[in-house]
Each structure stands twice: as structure tokens, then as C-alpha cells.
């Protein structure tokens, strides 16, 4: 059984080392960048970004666009 890690930064260092050993440095960094928390508040912002439409209205618009693309 492994001994508990006393240094609080050691798990992060060991974890990155394991990623880098497995994926290589560049891919380990790419992997970690996928978990960037980002910024802003999407819950608040989505109300201004997304249309205030019903599912039915959005479905009809998608179908209209798809039918138009076929002609």
C-alpha cells in the first residue's frame, strides 16, 4: 500500500508526470487544456445568446433549412 502524500502539490506533479510519460508533453498539455474552467457565467449568458423559441419552432426551422438545402 502506498504511503499518504504529505506535500499537497505532489499529487498534481505526479499526475502530470504520469500523463506526460503516457501521452508525451505536448499531448499532456492538450489534455489538460480541455479542462479549462473558462470564464463568465454561461447560465446567465445563454439567455442572450440563444433564441427564445419552443422546441417545435426550432425543429420546424431546422427542417425548413434542410429541405431548402436539398433543392
Topology:
Blueprint: H1 10-23, H2 25-33, H3 42-49, H4 55-70
Helix pairs in contact: 1-2
Q: If you had to describe this structure to a student in words, what would you say it looks like?
A:
With 71 residues, the chain is mostly helical. The chain has one domain. 66% of the residues lie in helices and 0% in strands. It is built from four helices and no strands. It has helices at 10-23, 25-33, 42-49, 55-70. The longest helix is centred in the last third of the chain and has 16 residues, at 55-70. The termini are far apart.
Task: Please give a handful of descriptors for the protein shown.
mainly alpha; 4 helices; 66% helix; 71 residues
Q: What low-confidence regions span 5 or more consecutive residues with pLDDT below 50?
A: none
Q: Number of helical segments? A: 4
Number of strands: 0
Helix content: 55-70%
Question: Mean pLDDT score, rounded?
Answer: 87
Strand percent estimate: under 5%
H/E element sequence: HHHH
Radius of gyration: 23 Å
Q: What profile does the largest beta sheet have?
A: none
Structural class: mainly alpha
Termini separation: 67 Å
What form results from the Cα inertia axes?
Answer: elongated
Domain module count: 1
Amino acid at each position: 500500500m502506498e504511503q499518504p502524500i504529505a506535500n499537497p502539490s505532489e499529487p498534481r506533479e505526479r499526475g502530470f508526470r504520469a500523463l506526460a510519460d503516457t501521452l508525451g508533453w505536448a499531448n499532456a498539455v492538450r489534455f489538460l487544456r480541455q479542462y479549462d474552467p473558462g470564464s463568465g457565467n454561461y447560465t446567465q449568458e445563454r439567455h442572450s445568446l440563444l433564441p427564445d423559441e419552443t422546441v417545435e419552432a426550432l425543429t420546424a426551422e431546422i427542417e425548413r433549412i434542410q429541405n431548402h438545402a436539398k433543392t
